[in-house]
Amino acid sequence: MYAVFRTGGKQFRAEAGTRLQVPTLDAEAGDTIVFDEVLLAADGDDITVGSPTLSGASVKAEVLGHGRTKKVIVFKRKRRKGYRKKQGHRQGYTEIKVSEIAL
Prior knowledge:
Blueprint: E1 2-7, E2 10-15, E3 19-23, E4 32-35, E5 38-43, E6 46-49, E7 58-68, E8 72-78, E9 83-89, E10 92-102
Antiparallel strand pairs: 1-2, 1-5, 3-10, 4-7, 5-6, 7-10, 8-9
């Protein structure tokens, strides 16, 4: 069984026991979070699609910790003008472990 849920403006496919890196959530390590915006749920060949979300469906997960991804370098340059700008960015994330999918 799996479900597709939305958090932080992005969609994630979750199965029980999987670890995911979602955009930063306001929760401490060890907390349990419930995601209510479930867009799709599948149990074998039985697929249920919401319009836009499934009512009563939820994904329960445990927060494992917080971190930051690898650095991305943004380099801007204009030819013949001497304009150069270098900037780095590290996106924050929250690592979760999906414990249960409730339909």
